[in-house]
Each structure stands twice: as C-alpha cells, then as structure tokens.
Design a protein that fits this description.
The complex is a heterodimer of chains A (177) and B (577). Chain A has 177 residues and is of the alpha+beta class. Chain A has 2 domains: 4-84, ACT domain (Alpha-Beta Plaits); 85-152, 2-Layer Sandwich (Alpha-Beta Plaits), CATH 3.30.70.1150. Chain A has helices at 18-28, 57-69, 96-101, 103-112, 132-142, 165-172; strands at 4-13, 35-40, 46-55, 73-80, 84-95, 115-119, 123-130, 149-152, 156-159. Chain B folds into 3 domains: 2-188, Thiamin diphosphate (ThDP)-binding fold, Pyr/PP domains (Rossmann fold, 3-Layer(aba) Sandwich); 207-361, Rossmann fold (3-Layer(aba) Sandwich), CATH 3.40.50.1220; 382-554, Rossmann fold (3-Layer(aba) Sandwich), CATH 3.40.50.970. Chain B is built from 24 helices and 20 strands. Chain B is globular, with a radius of gyration of 24 Å. The chains are: A alpha+beta (177), B alpha/beta (577). The A-B interface holds A 12-13, 17, 20-21, 24, 28, 61-62, 65-66, 68-69, 71-74, 169, 172-173, 175-176 and B 135-136, 139-140, 143-147, 164, 194-200, 320-326. The structure holds thiamine diphosphate. The site of thiamine diphosphate (TPP) has 20 residues of chain B, from helix 18, helix 20 and helix 22.
Chain lengths: 177, 577
C-alpha cells in the first residue's frame, strides 16, 4: 500500500493524560507525527486534536481504531487531503532594514498574501496562512535575505463532510445522568 | 471465600459522611463488592493501610512478597471468578513493580484495578522521595489511568475505575492517589458509575451482519470456528456450545479461550497456534469459512499472515472495533458482546453435521497422536515427560482442576494435555508470556474459587521469578498445589537454541537449588519425583491433600514441544518433529 497524507481528527474530553496516550499509539507503531494541533472544538468542553501523518491507509485505520478506543476519546476520523479544508500558519521575523531597502521583499509580501503583524525598529513579523507548500515557497524566497526566526504551526483542518459529534453526544447523554 | 457481599452501610448512603480520603478509598472498594485485595504497603499509601487495618473484618488484604505478585494474584482471582481483581502499592518502586502485571492484564484483557500511593500534591514534580511518574509509565499498559490529587475526587474516580475495568473489553486501570488526598477529610457519597460519555464499551449487535454471518455459515462446506477468551469474558460458553452443536461446526480454541467448552466435546478439535494441534492448524488453510469468535488473530495463532486462511471467507465476532481488520480482514464483522451476538445468530443457523469435514480433523488427530501425543503421554523411554505428569493430574483431579501455568514448554504441554470440564479453568499468561505469573496467579485463583482444586504448573526457571510468594501460601495456608516440572533448563529457549541456533545453549542451563528444601523452609509439604513408578501415587497424594503441597518432578532435560509452527512460517507448515 502507498503512503499518503492523512489528517486525523480526534474529538475528546479535556484530559491531562490523553495527549500522552495518543502520542504513545504512534510511538508504539513507529509512525511519525508530522503535525499536531490541539484546540477547542465547535462543541463546549470538547477538545479537538488535529494530527497529520504520512502513512498507509491500513496503518491510519489501525491508529484511528486505537485512538478511538481510549476512554476519553469521543470519536476519531481520518481524511485524505481532498476531503478536508486545511491550513497551516507561519511567522517570519525579519530585519526591519530589509523592509525598506529591498524592493523584492515588498513584492514577496504582496504576492504571497501574507500580513505584516508588527513592525519594530529592529525587526518586522510576517504572518502567512496557507498550504504547506505555499509557506515553504515563501520561506525559500525570503531565505536569501536572512530570516531571523521562523515558526510554522501544525495543520488545522475541517472536513468537507459533516461531523456528527453533537448528535452523538446527545445520544450518549441521557444514559449517564 | 464467599462471593459478592454488598456492603449496605457503605454503598447506599443517601447522605454524605465526613471522612478521610483513605477511609473513602476503603469504602469505595466495599461498595464495589471487593472483599479481597493484594498489595504491599509503603510511605505514600500508609493512610490507606491504616484504614485497611480498621476494616479488616470486611476487607481482607493479602500481603504478597513483591508487588508483581500482587498484580498476578489479582489477575488469577479475576480470571477464575470473573470479578475485578484489586492490587495496591506504594509510590515509586512499589508502583513500578506493578508494570509487568498491568501489561499482562492489558494484553490478556483482565479486569483489574490498581491503586498506588503518590507523594503529596505539593511535592509533585519535585523529584521527591519515591516520586515516580506512574501515570506516564503505565499509560501504554492500562485501559485507563488517573491521578487523584484531592480527596473529593476519590468516589467518582474509583467508581469510574471499576466500571471501566470490567465493562466492554475488560482491562487494567490504575488510580494514583497523592498522600494529601488520602489524608484530607471531605463529604463522602458513593455513586456507582453507569457510564462514561465518551466511552461505548459494548457495541450494539447489528442484525444485518448477523444475518450475513448465518448465511455464510449455513452454506459453507468446510467451516471452522476458532474461539478465544472473548467467549469466556462475554459469558457466552453455553451459546457457543449451542451454535457448535446445531451447525455441526468443528471448533478450535486459542490458548486464552481454553476450557470455555469441555475438552471432551466431540466438536472441540483442539488448540490453534504455534504449539497447537495439527488438525486445526493445517485445516485453517483448507477451510472455506473461518469463524473467529472473541479472538484477536495474535501472531502466535496465525503464523505468517500472508499465508493464513487465504482461501477462506472470514467472519469475526468481536467486542472491540479496533480488532476488526487489524490483522486479518473480515468479510463479515459482527460487533458486540459474544453472548448477545451468538444468541441472535443461533436461530438463524440451519442444522448440519459436516461429517466428512469433521473426519478430516479426526484423521489429522490420528497423525498427531502417532507422531507426538502417544510419546508425550505414554512414553516408552526412561525419562519422565511433562505430558505424562499433566495426564496424571487430569486423572487424579477428574479433569476438574483449575490449571494455572507459567510460561515455557510446560505451559504449552499443560495447555495441550490438560482436560477441562468447566470454563475459567485455564489460567495462563497468553499475550505477554510473563514468566513468574503462575505462582502468584494460582494464589489469587484459589482465593477466588476456594471450592476448586487449583494446580500451578511451573518451569524451574519461571518458578524462581516469583518464588517468594511461597510466603503467602505459608502465611495464609492457601491450599494450592504447586508442580514444578524441572528440566534444569530454560526449556523453551533451549528448544529454540536446539532447533534454530545449532544447539548453542547460551544461558539456558539452570543450576537449581533444592526446591524441596525451599518449600519446606516455608513449612509447605514437599516431595520430589524422579522415577515413573512414584508419579501416580504422589500426584494422587497431592490432589487428595487439603493443604498446600509442593511437587517437583524431574523431567527429561532436553525434550521438545511439538507440533510447532516455526515463527514466521505458515500454519500449514506445522512441524511434527
Ligand atoms: C519474564 C520473562 N523473561 C524471559 C522470557 C523468555 N522465555 C520464554 S520461555 C523461557 C524459558 C522458561 O523456562 P522454564 O521456566 O524453566 O520453563 P520450561 O520452558 O523449561 O518449561 C524464557 C526464558 C519470558 N517469557 N518472560
């Protein structure tokens, strides 16, 4: 089976130890986590993990099964890139002098659709959201001028199809009170 | 020991009482019907031990000689009784000593709750004396774990712990409780846990998939059932028997499923897997339908997956969705509790006999009997075999004993030749293969089924991994029968060295102590048998005794266990010699 990029979305109760449990599932199978983001979700008190992996569908199914088995996990899904809308964000910290001296930098800012977050005497900061390759491209373009600091976030994504977590939770609810 | 005593006073308190966290822990245990636990005290758990002292009339604490022993005893207790086993330990080394038992219970789906003490909340993260991150350490080997740092969390968390341990696919749970939480007073009220929002332990059976399964079963020409421990955990033994009887389908078992159906049942065709029976292994690759029930296609069962039952359609009855298609793809997956799903399946099955197909198993059995079994059980050579010892135990106990095995050749031989009439009678470390399991597990098994004969079968190697638990047998006069099959080697490893490493016996020769003297040092009646003429009478004497009894049998030093599927080979490449 071919390796592909998959986005795993995990809806869970907020729990201190859960990240450890989830990362252990990858560790045990020697599968690298390429991107990880934890945030709140559309549902009150439910967290969402967004995990990006490059592996085969057989393994991603196995992993999702193991994740879903964890007590605090409400539901886990996996999607291929076509099935989701996804983005990453990046910050570039660059010497302020360049902003005024190098015309090319201004072009890059304009063409890349990035925003200037702040301008200080010493440095300015660019923010860029988009696909990984867009961010990489911008990184390549800025590199020759010198990047003082660079950071890129994990992927965030929403699926094109509906995630029926709220319904599921409603179904669970009456039994447990 | 009697069964569940619901402690009214502790359980059904409608109003709260103001008590310490430590007392609350004991009251939670009582409310869960626990009347026996295994453990070892230490600084961080002392407040709880102080309460155990006060409640000793209602709750018996067995001091094992090592925390690993406490976990295996709790496992043995759970496996024989179907109840949740409980083990307790202090922080740091006490907690880390639980890890092997947790891992064993996790892979063999054994319901167990472990409670550990932890340094006081203020000291967490300071590398305090005997502080260890047992939550981090135990995460991969627990179904669930949780650190309690406030007394007020205790009732809810312990209720949840018991619920999670026993529900769905059972497993071990660890609750780590900081010392301040044991000391603080709070208003205690116990409510049993009835569910956890994010956890769906038992999927509801889907009728469509059951109909599809019945359809395949009714039309198959050469169907084979392989059942596992899921049948025992789901209490589906009677249902499985009814299915087999009605559909006339030969049924084999994994080591964890053994004893669910009597050995003598005509359609019970034996064990699958590495040292399983010839027929079910070879015929796995000839059947047209493989019906897996409550088993997980472990590699010790399947051998090479690339050549496993490729010709057959596969039906998988399973409670844990993560097991479906994990190792072997299922044409039909039936999720749910095995008792419920088999019950729904039964009326949809048509009666059948499959006589020709069944005769295939008989033929293969004959081949195995002539090549292996005959010499194992009725040897003509001088040296004693492990097989004849097991056979004598069958005879003396009338096939009624609970057999607890350790890990190695003796385990495979015991599981191959022990005969059972009653479920929950074969207790072994199947998934983890933990040497040192049997002695403490036998103690727990006996305490969980005082009315039953419990015989531990152990190798000379594994025996010395937890031999200190003889102290428990002595102190509490636990009438278990201990049989050490002494080949003066780490036999199973030696066998592999003989077969695959040109007899280079690296560190597998054991220079053993006088086991009889050691047992006598613990005031346990002890005998050694080295000759065939003494075997039968001594085993009968052992079984007849109502006291603890130790028997060392000197067996052939270099016997091998066959049949054998070399690791990585196909089930049909099973070797008879
Ligand atoms: C804790 C542990 N360590 C190592 C092993 C590897 N191992 C499997 S079987 C075996 C030999 C067991 O020897 P013994 O207890 O004498 O039993 P026998 O095979 O001779 O019946 C060993 C070392 C194991 N299963 N468990």
């Amino acid at each position: 089976m071919e390796k592909e990029w998959f986005t795993i979305s995990v809806y869970s109760e907020n729990n201190v130890g859960l990240l450890n449990r989830i990362s252990g599932i990858f560790l045990k199978r020697h599968i690298n986590i390429e991107g990880l983001n934890v945030s709140k979700s559309e549902i009150d008190n439910v967290s969402k993990f967004t995990i990006v992996v490059n592996t085969t569908e057989k393994w991603v199914k196995n992993i999702v099964g193991q994740i879903e088995k964890q007590i605090e996990v409400i539901k886990a899904f996996y999607h291929t890139d076509d099935e989701t809308i996804y983005q990453e964000s990046a910050l570039f910290k660059i010497d302020s002098a360049l902003l005024f001296d190098e015309r090319q930098i201004q072009n890059i800012i304009k063409e890349s659709n990035s925003q200037i977050v702040t301008v200080a005497r010493e440095f300015f900061v660019l923010a860029k959201s988009g696909r990984r390759n867009e961010i990489d491209e911008m990184h390549e373009q800025l590199k020759p001028f010198g990047i003082m600091q660079f950071v890129r976030s994990g992927r965030i994504s929403v699926s094109k199809d509906e995630m029926q977590i709220s319904n599921m939770l409603k179904e669970f609810q009456p039994n447990y009170n | 020991m009697e069964t569940i005593k619901e402690k009214k006073a502790a359980t059904n308190t409608k109003s709260t009482i103001n008590i310490s966290g430590a007392e609350a822990i004991v009251r939670c245990l009582l409310a869960e019907g626990v009347d026996l636990l295994f453990g070892y005290p230490g600084g961080a758990i002392m407040p709880v031990y102080d309460e155990l002292y006060k409640f000793q009339d209602e709750l018996t604490h067995i001091l094992t000689r090592h925390e690993q022993g406490a976990t295996h005893a709790a496992q043995g207790y759970a496996r024989v009784s179907g109840r949740v086993g409980v083990a307790m330990a202090t922080s740091g080394p006490g907690a880390t000593n639980l890890v092997t038992g947790l891992a064993d219970a996790q892979i063999d789906s054994t319901p167990m709750v472990c409670i550990t003490g932890q340094v006081t909340r203020e000291l967490l993260g300071s590398d305090a004396f005997q502080e260890t991150d047992i939550i981090g350490i135990s995460t991969p080997v627990t179904k669930w774990n949780y650190q309690v740092t406030r007394a007020s969390e205790i009732p809810e968390i312990l209720a949840k712990a018991f619920y999670i341990a026993r529900s769905g696919r059972p497993g071990p749970v660890l609750v780590d409780i900081t010392k301040n939480a044991q000391i603080e007073a709070f208003d205690f009220l116990y409510k049993k846990c009835k569910g956890v929002r994010s956890y769906n332990p038992t999927p509801k059976p889907n009728l469509g998939s059951i109909e599809a399964a019945a359809e395949l079963m009714n039309t198959a020409k050469k169907p084979l059932i392989v059942w596992g421990q899921g049948v025992i955990l789901g209490q589906a033994e009677e249902k499985l028997k009814a299915v087999i009887d009605k559909a006339g389908i030969p049924a084999a078992w994994t080591i964890m499923g053994e004893s669910a159906i009597p050995t003598s049942h005509p359609l019970n065709v034996g064990m699958v897997g590495m040292h399983g029976n010839y027929g079910p292994n070879v015929l796995t690759n000839e059947c047209d339908l493989l019906i897996a029930i409550g088993m997980r296609f472990d590699d010790r069962v399947t051998g090479s997956l690339n050549t496993y039952a490729k010709q057959a359609k596969v039906i998988h009855f399973e409670i844990d969705p993560a097991e479906i298609n994990k190792n072997v793809n299922a044409d039909v997956a039936v999720l749910g509790n095995s008792k419920e799903t088999l019950e729904l399946l039964l009326p949809l099955l048509t009666e059948n006999k499959h006589e020709d197909w069944h005769n295939e198993f008989k033929k293969h059995h004959q081949i195995e009997f002539d090549a292996v079994i005959k010499n194992d059980i009725h040897p003509t050579k001088e040296g004693l075999t492990m097989g004849e010892v097991i056979e004598e135990i069958n005879i003396a106990s009338g096939n009624k004993a609970v057999i607890v095995t350790d890990v190695g050749q003796h385990q495979m031989i015991a599981c191959r030749y022990a005969k059972f009439e009653q479920s929950k009678s074969n207790i072994t470390s199947g998934g983890l293969g933990t040497m040192g399991f049997a002695l403490p597990a036998a103690i727990g098994a006996k305490m969980g089924a005082m009315d039953r004969e419990v015989v531990a079968i152990i190798g000379d190697g594994g025996y010395q991994m937890t031999i200190q638990e003889l102290g428990v047998i002595f102190q509490h006069e636990v009438p278990v029968k201990i049989v050490v099959l002494n080949n003066d080697h780490l036999g199973m490893v030696r066998q592999w060295q003989e077969l695959f490493f040109e007899r280079r016996y690296a560190s597998t020769v054991m220079v053993n102590p006088d086991f009889v003297k050691i047992a006598e040092g613990y005031h346990i009646e002890a005998k050694r048998v080295s000759e065939r003429k003494d075997l039968k009478a001594t085993i009968q004497e052992m079984i007849a005794s109502d006291k603890p009894y130790f028997l060392e049998v000197k067996v052939e030093k270099e016997d091998n266990v066959f049949p054998m599927i070399p690791s990585g080979a196909s089930v049909s490449e099973v070797r008879l010699k």
